[in-house]
């Protein structure tokens, strides 16, 4: 290392230098920012054995251990595809070097310097090497030579043809083999991390544990391994220094007991950190065991269910905590109101934690009340505080003034995250919150998601002027404009700002903001998440802003309009260019676990960013209205990825088919094989198959590739009447394809043709019941589910075959299968634009199935999509025209006259709506078991409610702008007057006069509901008031109709005392009032922006919950 006349630096000084480089990299905020230090250490190692042994190698692996290696995990997300390829190659070299060193095949024994064995990272690498993109060169290089012993493949069944056999890596066996080598040759291992995709440690720990005498940190996926007494004892004996424990979940039914046994067996006051990320059934035993580490444990992160929350007060001896994170997996109860003893115990425990600096509560409704004593007393000086939750578990902004004022005592706070329900909100609520936040001068991070929904420009300007230390700002609001940008630009330390409210920024305003930024704000990220669609910045403006920000400070600009929450944006302007989406490794088991825990798991999938892949095997339509062209449009509109295997070319237009050119079946097979082998398939959708040979090979492909989810549209005749499938092919379809079909979607003629070819008698269809019989008959031929399309048979209002145009009221699609037997009814539309409806419907269903929706939900959503496509279509051609496939990207998420239907089918509405319309109070009225005294109290309160309800409708008339709308409001008020008279009659039967009723005091539930509606009427527009009134108007009619049907299907044992109430709400005058109210709302809803629709949905949900509260009030009287 010495040059002539220059003395080499001593080794101990090099140790200090390399240690400093490692510290800087570890403290970097991302892998990308750690690159310079990592590169410097790499160059040291490559240039000199002396430098490698003088600390550079140890420092390099310290960086890797702390997830800051720029090549670990593939290099991070903010890199191009080309860089990603290079990073994956470097990533593989990193691991190859480590493994080779365990075999003694490297010049320097790298493995002996390892402090951590991250099998999770190795698992992710193997996943990438198993992708077709890397399975060639990179994977071959990784497993070349001495590492060939680790190239272990999953055994393929012998019956699978060699040409089609996918040689997939057996990742679990590879991890076990590599881990065994590393644990043998890395004596200093301090950390062991298990991947979530393989239960490696439950197999490996009995062998590995005696080698891990320096182990200090253990992270494993499933706590069931602690149910093994042998593993527990081995860890106790051989790993006395174990101080950090993390597990994701536990499938062990006695996990609380076994986890407690393990923690109790550790040397007391040795555990420093404990964390569980998901359901582990932690309860009293684990909490008591953790107390044995009360003087040492400084970081506790718990994910709890109800029994765990109730046990928190037992942690009274755990007072050395500096970090405390508590997450509730289900909506928690208000402990102060329902479990006051438990609440006080938890408060006393927290009071004793005087060293707390970082506190986080997620999904814990009582969190603000639990924190008030700690905040006010000031014994703990917090630096980070987070109180968040899911919808339904957010604390209510207006009810927690005490909590917000208490925050003023924590002047050392550097990070504050508050997520509260701001509805309803007053000026006082906002001013109290603002007074506190603006006093916290040390804040570097401020996140007010949802809490700030009603902030305006003034509040954002005040925050920016009052908090000079801010580095990260996440803020909502409405009507946010360029006026805020001047103040935000003067935040000298700002690194990231997200405007998550309704914004109306301009190109000039944002460009001026960028120009005012000081040069030192390197890497600033500006995100506009909910731009008002009515004033969006055009794409060229977005690109100009992004280029300017990238040039000025190397920053990134992200911009997207307000849209439905499950819509995904697949490109955004980043550093002046369109950044491609980088699909990274996803923890499949974690997603599955979250889906199982979700209350909507039965109908809605987890929100995954992985694009779903649909393989369409069908014919081409030269006019673009049907066939592959319609399929690809529908799939693109659903933001899925379409692949095609073309079975035939057709010469056709809107007037008919003039020619068909079949694709040779062998070539169809090659197309299918190519797609499956490379990209993969989530769902198969078939259309025109053209020949018996093609039908046969499709059936073979479904079986060969085990493609279990298929949507088969048995295209036999075009809309124009042309024959598209020879009769001999129908027989093959019945014999070969139907038995392996997941969902078959025939229309009525196709269904009867299938029955005929199968030797079954056709089913005559004259009504809705006939449709059900026909669907069931086809389903018995083999497909798991059948969706019979009833568009060929418009029905009357009574469900009979329509004889005239005037009688055509609706069409019915019948879904039948082992778990479902239901009818999807759609209003009949007189339209000539129906070319390709069958193709479009089947492809829409395929997309929804690929996304994880249950089949009944997928079918309903697809039917609505097609309905809107017909309604919004434009006339093209002189015959049967095409649908509008892209209506959902051009307009509102519902068709004309479809707002209320859309509203009731939304996932965030359905739980609240079901709680309201199926309340126990309602059920007891239906079966006649409701106590008369309970009903009496309800009628009194409902009378008082109706008086305010009439006032609200009168206010709606005042706010209306047309005579028709005024008359509509007046008609509803007239009916309310009639309804009140019926209430008076009911009360007279209880011996109460009108004067007696009016002297009663309003219940809190009644007052809260009516004043909420009136407040909406005062502060919002006419439509918002109508939506706030809608749950009452619509719900009572739906409830009464269901209870009326109950009297027929499940008649009470005795005459139902409440029959007059039921009949009142199914009477013609009430149903007419409901229709008038619906029509008024539908007329105006279609004129709203998407952002306004979301606001109306929130009002509807809140008012619906108020209705449920009214039932609760009556039931508990």
UniProtKB/TrEMBL annotation:
Question: Cellular component terms, GO, for this chain's entry?
Answer: cytosol
Q: Name one GO molecular function term.
A: phosphomethylpyrimidine kinase activity
Which SUPFAM superfamilies does this one have?
Heme oxygenase-like, Ribokinase-like, RNI-like
According to the UniProt entry, the coiled-coil residues are none
Superkingdom classification of source: Eukaryota
Listed Pfam families: Phos_pyr_kin (PF08543), TENA_THI-4 (PF03070)
**Which InterPro entries does the UniProt record give?**
Haem_Oase-like_multi-hlx, HMP/HMP-P_kinase_dom, LRR_dom_sf, PM/HMP-P_kinase-1, Ribokinase-like, Thiaminase-2/PQQC, Thiaminase_II
Q: Which residues form the signal peptide?
A: none
- The record places domain Thiaminase-2/PQQC at 908-1115
NCBIfam families with a match to the protein in the record? HMP-P_kinase, salvage_TenA
Listed PANTHER family: HYDROXYMETHYLPYRIMIDINE_PHOSPHOMETHYLPYRIMIDINE KINASE THI20-RELATED, PHOSPHOMETHYLPYRIMIDINE KINASE
Name of the protein: Pyridoxamine kinase/Phosphomethylpyrimidine kinase domain-containing protein
Organism field: Hortaea werneckii (Black yeast)
What lineage does the source organism belong to? Eukaryota, Fungi, Dikarya, Ascomycota, Pezizomycotina
């Amino acid at each position: 290392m010495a040059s002539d006349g220059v003395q080499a630096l001593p080794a101990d000084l090099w140790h200090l230098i390399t240690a400093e480089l490692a510290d800087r990299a570890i403290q970097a905020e991302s892998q990308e920012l750690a690159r310079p230090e990592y590169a410097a250490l790499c160059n040291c190692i490559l240039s000199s054995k002396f430098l490698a042994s003088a600390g550079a190698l140890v420092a390099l692996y310290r960086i890797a251990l702390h997830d800051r290696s720029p090549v670990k995990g593939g290099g991070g997300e903010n890199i191009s595809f080309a860089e990603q390829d290079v990073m994956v190659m470097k990533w593989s070299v990193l691991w190859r070097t480590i493994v080779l060193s365990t075999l003694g095949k490297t010049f320097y024994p790298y493995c002996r310097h390892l402090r951590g064995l991250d099998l999770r990272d190795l698992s992710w690498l193997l996943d990438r090497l198993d992708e077709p993109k890397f399975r060639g060169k990179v994977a071959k290089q990784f497993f070349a030579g001495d590492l060939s012993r680790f190239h272990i493949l999953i055994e393929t069944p012998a019956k699978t043809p060699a040409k089609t056999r996918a040689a997939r890596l057996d990742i679990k066996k590879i991890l076990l083999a590599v881990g065994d080598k590393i644990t043998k040759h890395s004596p200093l291992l301090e950390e062991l991390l298990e991947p979530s995709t393989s239960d490696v440690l439950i197999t490996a720990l009995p062998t590995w544990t005696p080698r891990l005498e320096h182990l200090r940190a253990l992270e494993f996926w499933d706590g069931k391994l602690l149910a093994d007494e042998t593993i527990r004892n081995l860890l106790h004996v051989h790993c006395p220094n174990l101080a950090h424990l993390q597990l994701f979940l536990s499938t062990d039914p006695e996990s609380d007991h076994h986890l407690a046994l393990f923690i109790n067996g550790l040397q007391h006051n040795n555990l420093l950190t404990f964390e569980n990320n998901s359901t582990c059934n932690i309860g009293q035993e684990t909490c008591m065991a953790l107390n044995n580490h009360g003087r040492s444990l400084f970081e506790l992160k718990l994910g709890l269910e109800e029994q765990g929350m109730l046990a928190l007060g037992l942690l009274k001896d755990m007072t050395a905590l500096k970090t405390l994170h508590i997450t509730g997996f289900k909506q928690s109860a208000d402990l102060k109101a329902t479990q006051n003893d438990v609440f006080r115990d938890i408060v006393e425990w927290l009071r004793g934690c005087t060293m707390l600096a970082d506190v986080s509560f997620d999904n814990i409704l009582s969190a603000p009340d639990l924190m008030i004593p700690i905040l006010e007393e000031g014994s703990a000086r917090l630096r980070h505080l987070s109180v968040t939750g899911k919808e339904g578990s957010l604390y209510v902004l207006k009810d927690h003034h005490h909590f917000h004022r208490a925050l003023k005592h924590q002047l050392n706070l550097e990070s504050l995250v508050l997520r509260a329900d701001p509805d309803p909100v007053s000026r006082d609520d906002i001013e109290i919150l603002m007074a506190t936040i603006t006093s916290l001068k040390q804040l570097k991070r401020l996140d007010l998601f949802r809490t700030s929904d009603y902030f305006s420009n003034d509040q954002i300007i005040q925050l920016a002027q009052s908090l000079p230390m801010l580095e990260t700002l996440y803020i909502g609001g409405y009507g946010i404009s360029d006026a805020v940008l001047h103040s935000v630009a003067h935040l000298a330390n700002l690194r990231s700002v997200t405007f998550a409210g309704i914004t109306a920024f301009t190109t000039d305003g944002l460009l001026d903001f960028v120009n005012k930024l000081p040069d030192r704000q390197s890497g600033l990220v500006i995100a506009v998440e909910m731009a008002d669609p009515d004033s969006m910045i055009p794409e060229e403006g977005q690109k100009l802003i992004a280029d300017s920000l990238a040039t000025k400070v190397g920053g990134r600009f992200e911009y997207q309009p307000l849209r439905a929450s499950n819509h995904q944006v697949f490109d955004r302007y980043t550093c002046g260019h369109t950044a491609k989406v980088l699909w990274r490794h996803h923890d499949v088991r974690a997603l599955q676990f979250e889906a199982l825990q979700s209350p909507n798991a039965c109908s809605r999938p987890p929100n995954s960013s992985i694009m779903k892949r649909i393989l369409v095997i069908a014919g081409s339509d030269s006019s673009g209205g049907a066939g592959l062209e319609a399929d690809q449009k529908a799939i693109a509109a659903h933001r899925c990825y379409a692949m095609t295997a073309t079975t035939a070319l057709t010469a056709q237009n809107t007037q008919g088919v003039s020619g068909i050119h079949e694709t040779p079946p062998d070539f169809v097979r090659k197309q299918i094989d190519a797609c499956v082998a490379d990209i993969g398939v989530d769902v198969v959708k078939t259309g025109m198959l053209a020949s018996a040979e093609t039908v046969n090979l499709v059936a073979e492909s479904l079986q060969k590739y085990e493609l279990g989810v298929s949507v088969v549209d048995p295209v036999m005749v075009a809309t124009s009447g042309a024959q598209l499938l020879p009769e001999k092919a129908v027989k093959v379809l019945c014999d070969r394809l139907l038995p392996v079909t997941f969902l078959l979607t025939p229309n009525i003629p196709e269904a009867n043709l299938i029955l005929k070819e199968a030797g079954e008698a056709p089913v005559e269809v004259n009504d809705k019941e006939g449709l059900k019989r026909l669907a069931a008959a086809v389903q018995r031929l083999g497909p798991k589910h059948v969706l019979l399309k009833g568009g060929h048979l418009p029905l009357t209002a009574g469900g009979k075959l329509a004889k005239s145009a005037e009688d055509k009221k609706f069409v019915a699609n019948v879904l039948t299968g082992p778990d479902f037997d239901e009818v999807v009814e759609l209003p009949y539309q007189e339209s000539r634009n129906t070319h390709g409806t069958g193709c479009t419907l089947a492809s829409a269903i395929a997309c929804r199935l690929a996304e994880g929706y249950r089949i009944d939900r997928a079918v309903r959503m697809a039917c609505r999509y097609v309905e809107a496509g017909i309604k919004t279509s434009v006339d093209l051609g002189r015959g049967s025209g095409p649908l509008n496939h892209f209506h959902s990207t051009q307009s509102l998420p519902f068709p004309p006259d479809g707002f209320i239907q859309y509203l009731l089918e939304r996932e965030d509405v359905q739980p609240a709506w079901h709680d309201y319309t199926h309340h126990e109070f309602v059920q007891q009225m239906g079966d006649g078991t409701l106590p008369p005294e309970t009903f009496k109290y309800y009628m009194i309160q409902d009378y008082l409610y109706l008086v305010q309800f009439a006032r609200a409708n009168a206010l709606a008339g005042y706010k209306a702008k047309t005579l028709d709308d005024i008359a509509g409001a007046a008609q509803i008020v007239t009916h309310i007057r009639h309804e009140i008279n019926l209430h008076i009659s009911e009360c007279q039967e209880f011996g109460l006069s009108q004067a007696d009723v009016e002297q009663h005091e309003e219940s809190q539930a009644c007052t809260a509901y009516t004043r909420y509606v009136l407040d909406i009427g005062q502060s919002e527009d006419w439509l918002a008031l109508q939506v706030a009134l809608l749950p009452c108007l619509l719900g009572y009619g739906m409830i009464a109709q269901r209870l009326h049907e109950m009297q027929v299907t499940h008649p009470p044992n005795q005459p139902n005392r409440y029959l007059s109430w039921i009949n009142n709400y199914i009477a013609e005058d009430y149903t007419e009032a409901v229709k008038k109210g619906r029509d008024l709302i539908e007329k105006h809803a279609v004129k709203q922006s998407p952002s306004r629709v979301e606001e109306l949905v929130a009002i509807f949900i809140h008012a619906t919950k108020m209705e449920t509260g009214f039932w609760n009030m009556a039931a508990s009287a």
